[in-house]
Amino acid sequence: MEKKKPYGTVLIKASKILDYLAENPDVSLQVIAKGVEMTPPTVLKILDTLLRIGYVNKNSEKNYRLGAKLIRYANKNIEQMDLVELTLPFLEKLQKKIDETIHLGIIDNDEILYVNKLEPKHQTIRMSSKIGITRPLYNSAMGKAVLAEFSEEQYTAYLETHPLVPYTKYTITNALRLKKEIQTVKESHVAFDDEEIERDIFCIGASIVKNDQAIGAFSVSMPKYRLTDKLKKEIIHALTQTKKEIEKRI
């Protein structure tokens, strides 16, 4: 049986070139071609594309090295993994107090990107959320907590470029009402999503701030029928305590 060639062989070659440059920065076309065992014309075509998209840089001596864009992706991934590892013991401690779904998110293109999820231990009905999904800032608990850390200029710019689209009939779509709620979040340091993204789901979130900048957020989510006034107060207290502990650690 004939073995199929993998789709995107040029990408495989590009990956090989990038791997080589990661270990051997500031080298010429000829050196790269020899190192990756490809012809110089083939390597040049791939390098031209990598230059165009910022994955590779070329200096005045026509030597190549990894570009800032590729390094930025790597650094972002490292920061993301650092936050997951750093917050994990605190979120596990929070979950022992509150046996509900715990989410951790980071800010990505003006959205909340889920990077960790802790499932409840003793609940039969669980959240359908997954690591890797995104949620808007204006109608999620983690997102509102982040918006509360924005400067006035940042907040105004966000509203100008992000329409308040309703996800459910409970989504806040009035800018004045949202601003009033964000002001409340600034004062209380906790934010709520009361069925604004998904029917019958209630979330309570808090931001994670480092050097006066929000670097992420975390939340407790549950089916709304399980929420009582007593439990809500317990979650808010535990959430604010966890926020202090995480921010002290970072």
Automatic annotation (TrEMBL):
Identify the taxonomic lineage of the organism of origin.
Bacteria, Bacillati, Bacillota, Bacilli, Lactobacillales
Transcription regulation among keywords: yes
IclR-ED domain residues:
69-250
What name has this protein been given in UniProt?
Answer: IclR family transcriptional regulator
User: Which SUPFAM superfamilies does the UniProt entry name for this protein?
Assistant: GAF domain-like, Winged helix' DNA-binding domain
User: What Gene3D superfamilies does its record include?
Assistant: 3.30.450.40, Winged helix-like DNA-binding domain superfamily/Winged helix DNA-binding domain
Q: Which Pfam families match?
A: HTH_IclR, IclR_C
Q: Which SMART domains match?
A: HTH_ICLR
- Keywords from the named record: DNA-binding, Transcription, Transcription regulation
InterPro entries annotated for this entry?
GAF-like_dom_sf, HTH_MetabolicPath_Reg, Tscrpt_reg_IclR_C, Tscrpt_reg_IclR_N, WH-like_DNA-bd_sf, WH_DNA-bd_sf
GO MF entry, a single one: DNA-binding transcription factor activity
Limits of the HTH iclR-type domain: 8-68
Give one GO biological process term: negative regulation of DNA-templated transcription
